[in-house]
Amino acid sequence: xxxxxxxAYNVIFNVITKIxxxxxxxxxxxxxxxxxxxxxxxxxxxVLAFFAFFGSVADLGLYTITAREISRAGADEKxxxxxxxxxxxxxxxxxxxxTPVLVFxxxxxxxxxxxxxxxxxxxxxxxxxMVLNGVFQKNLAMDKVATAEVLGKIIQIGIIILAVKNDLGxxxxxxxxxxxxxxxxxxxxxxxxxxxxxxxxxxxxYWKKFLKESAPLGISAIVIFVxxxxxxxxxxILKTNTEVGIYNAAYKxxxxxxxxxxxxxxxxxxxxxxxxISDKKHFAHLANETLKVFIILIVPLVIxxxxxSEGIIHLIGGAAFTEAANTLxxxxxxxxxxxxxxxxxxxxxxxxxQKKMLWMLVGCAIFNVGANLLFIPTFSYTAxxxxxxxxxxxxxxxxxxxxxKYTGYKPSIQKVPQILFSGFIMGAFLFAFKDHSFILSTxxxxxxxxxxxxxxxxxxxxxxxxxxxxx
Length: 471
Fold this sequence. Notes:
Blueprint: H1 3-59, H2 62-70, H3 77-104, H4 110-130, H5 133-138, H6 142-165, H7 170-192, H8 204-238, H9 241-257, H10 259-278, H11 280-317, H12 324-350, H13 358-407, H14 416-432, H15 438-455, H16 461-469
């Protein structure tokens, strides 16, 4: 199978499975919000915020650097993966062992504290299998990981539904995360053996060299957590569980939609790493096409959310979370900036300039924490949403500047006016039919947008065929 066809297959398969995973996740959130209510969902969101915190602390930049290193010509894959796997396992266990001490000092209920401990255990499995994903990226076999994750999500949702139907409580719902992560870890560990036999390696000299490369990304992961999740923790300390719940009903939509940029960048990253030095012209083509895809996705997501926010929130959380609709309208712009920020940061990583973006991320984190501490006490989750959006804007803008400065790549995207025009047509349609069924409006709006893209020749059949047929 030609490389282009394998890429196309992986993109299509991953889109389908990620959409399915997103639907399952939103179904799970729907059950959780209706069962736990605003207060209980606030507790649930607080636990998940700490799950993200554990991930940032133990990240060490291992996943991205592993994917980059094994993608390069002549790489010693067994040595790289064996050492990276051992490093990640030890760092994850260290975080798990420290968690009980941290939990003791937190001002939360016993259920939330137990939930945080379960989240720490879940993290050991999730973080360890994630470092193996670089192997599947390199071999264009992310469909296998995607399948495992969908099955894990089904297990998780099954446990959630069981807990809700039988009134098994908050702890059982949190435990569903642990069950899914154990399953994903086991499946990925078995599947990766087809490509590289995994054996823990403790080459401390290599560890030192590897960490020197990955440390800036590890610090970046902590910084990214600060501006991505610290608002939930600050809300949970300074405001009520209800406000945490309302904010996260909107934020969960953004989290689940953010799989689009992460998935596409994940598939493109090995090719960026391969061509950014050896063939800059081809790299620029790949980056420009990626940006075009991003804009095609961002425009309907933003316009659709502006018009359909109430329906989205009602579908996810029910009538009790109506206040989250305007918060979602703000956060959807944060998602748009996440697309671009993620792309430019990964280009910097692919070109070995990850250290250059560290101070940018630190500055954004300082702004985020300071602004949240200043404005959340008065403006609550509305302030958190605006500050998140501003932070993502800064990350994307500075990422673009650094990319131009250190890689020489200047974005050049074709047919942007046509994309925006198609978005305008979609918005006009949604405005005209705003009082109709939410599901019908969503599907019809998407159809209008796609038709407009085709009529303006933004996407042509020839272009689609070339993706599949050209190597």
